[in-house]
Design goal:
5-stranded mixed sheet, 2 domains, Aminopeptidase, 7 helices
């Protein structure tokens, strides 16, 4: 880690006034966040077929209306990606927000208790197709860009938002294409709200390990037939400690990741 990056981490982290005003900004924007979630849920983007044009237009319209510099990076018209970057006057780390705009299929509509393409408030929660994976996260990141923009004079570094396509099918039109066209968006740090669930954080270092496993037996999860070949079964070995999990523990990890 270079000195500039280290300084960017230290700056303002302990600034109680900054933390307080940001929290106030977030609370004041609560209804705006819900409204954006509703607009994103209504924008159909199931994959397959993976057409995210309506989602991209909706996201871009919000960012532009907030005075944010949104632009489109597209491999084709059906799978555009939305990029927005804010840079402070002082140097520092480049943090990248990343969220995908395509969603899983809704499946059997008769099993749903709420409309899939309409946001529903119920018991303090928001429901709609892929609110958790990950239209709610995308809305939060878009709103965070506006809040950061207001406080930009007191900050260091760069913040980018990348709303990408083609994630569900592990396609090449989303993040791979964006990074090919804009290598600077690799950034120094990446924040993705598609975490481990239960409002927990998952922290990872550099590097990626893909493991292909061929297994037989009863399936614990059935993806759409078209993308079965693209799915990788969760590995039942503990790579950190070099141990193998057996029985129910292995089955649990294979099903829930």
């Amino acid at each position: 880690m270079d000195q500039t990056t280290a300084q960017s981490i230290d700056i303002d982290v302990n600034d109680a006034d900054l933390v307080r005003v940001v929290k106030e900004d977030v609370e004041a924007a609560r209804e705006a966040l819900v409204e954006l979630c509703a607009r994103l849920v209504a924008a159909e983007s199931a994959n397959p077929p993976g057409n995210t044009a309506q989602m991209a237009r909706t996201l871009s319209a919000f960012l532009t209306a907030q005075g944010l510099p949104a632009r489109t990076v597209a491999a084709d018209d059906e799978a555009p990606n939305v990029v927005c970057t804010l840079a402070a006057d002082r140097p520092g780390a480049h943090v990248v927000f990343n969220a995908h705009m395509d969603t899983m299929l809704a499946g059997d509509l008769s099993s749903w208790t709420v409309p899939t393409l309409e946001l529903t408030r119920k018991d303090g929660r928001l429901y709609g197709l892929d609110m958790g994976n990950m239209k709610g996260a995308l809305a939060a990141m878009a709103l965070a860009m506006k809040i950061v923009q207001r406080r930009l004079p007191g900050l260091r570094g760069t913040l980018s938002l990348t709303g990408v396509s083609d994630e569900v099918m592990f396609g090449s039109r989303g993040s791979p294409f964006v990074l090919q066209q804009n290598p600077d968006l690799y950034g120094d740090y990446l924040i993705s709200s598609e975490g481990p669930g239960w409002m927990n954080f998952a922290v990872a270092e550099k590097g990626l390990l893909w493991v292909d496993v061929t297994a037989t037996g009863a399936a614990g999860h059935e993806p759409p037939r078209k993308c079965r070949r693209l799915w990788v079964l969760a590995v039942t070995g503990d790579l950190k400690y070099g141990k193998r999990k057996q029985g129910k523990e292995a089955h649990r990890d294979a099903v829930f990741g």
